Amino acid sequence: MAARSAESRPVRIPADGAVLSGDLDLPPGARGVVAFAHGSGSSRHSPRNRRVAEGLRQAGLGTLLLDLLTTDEESEDALSGHLRFDIGLLARRLEAATEWLAAQPSTRGLPVGYFGASTGAGAALVAAARRPLSIFAVVSRGGRPDLAGAALSDVASPTLLIVGGRDGTVVEMNQQALERLPGAKHLEIVPGATHLFEEPGALEAVGRLAADWFTRHLPPA
């Protein structure tokens, strides 16, 4: 396969009757691409996920930061809060983005992984369960894997759950979800970190752990 040049561009992805906004960034010779599923009330502009994405690109991985809700839906959700918990909807849109990546000349043939945060982790796991042959790894940051429900037992993708040591309830949720995941899996607790990993060095630790997991489990392009 010919070497790929660097690419960074905004994208529009048709998905489930909507058009989603995203940012695609590919370092030269990217060995894979990671699609981000953001958490409740967040977007592709999330500074936390953007810092993690930068770390992945430094490790040679492309990133797709994607809004799983449209602008109108985000406004509606800000009032009702119900769309952020519509895991089926979010998972379908993440699957549509995966199909879009497979059809683009610059990303066709690149192995795909998912990075999910908060409620986005539940959607990432559901989408991965539906695509066992095309999603090669999943990483959850401060996630709600429990929201994947029965789909947890169908996740074949190697899955890393990262939780802050001071995020007590979410730690318990992730421990219970870990027991239900059938394949390669690991729970990493970052000492001293809270739910948003705002403590010094906490988000950098997430980036290192995620980059290591993806580079270990994504096959060569």
Walk me through what this model shows.
There is one protein chain. The chain has a single domain, classed as Rossmann fold, CATH 3.40.50.1820. By secondary structure, it is α/β, with parallel strands linked by helices. It has an 8-stranded mixed β-sheet, with helices on both faces. The mean pLDDT is 91. The chain has helices spanning 47-58, 71-80, 87-103, 119-130, 168-180, 202-217, and strands spanning 7-15, 18-26, 33-37, 62-66, 112-117, 135-141, 159-164, 185-190. Helix content is 36%, strand content 24%.
CATH homologous superfamily assignment: Alpha/Beta hydrolase fold, catalytic domain
Shape: globular
Q: So how many helices?
A: 6
How far the N terminus sits from the C terminus, by CA atoms, comes to: 8 Å
- Give the domain tally: 1
SS-based structural class?
A: alpha/beta
Spatial arrangement of strands, main beta sheet: 1-2-4-3-5-6-7-8
Q: How much of the polypeptide forms β-strand, as a percent range?
A: 15-25%
How much is the radius of gyration in Å? Answer: 16 Å
Helix content: 25-40%
CATH class: Alpha Beta
If you consult CATH, what is the topology?
Rossmann fold
Give me a quick take on this structure.
This protein is of the alpha/beta class and 221 residues long.
Which descriptors would you attach to this protein?
single chain; about 220 residues; alpha/beta; Rossmann fold; eight-stranded mixed β-sheet; 8 strands; about 25% strand; globular
Task: Map the helices and strands.
Blueprint: E1 7-15, E2 18-26, E3 33-37, H1 47-58, E4 62-66, H2 71-80, H3 87-103, E5 112-117, H4 119-130, E6 135-141, E7 159-164, H5 168-180, E8 185-190, H6 202-217
Parallel strand pairs: 3-4, 3-5, 5-6, 6-7, 7-8
Antiparallel strand pairs: 1-2, 2-4
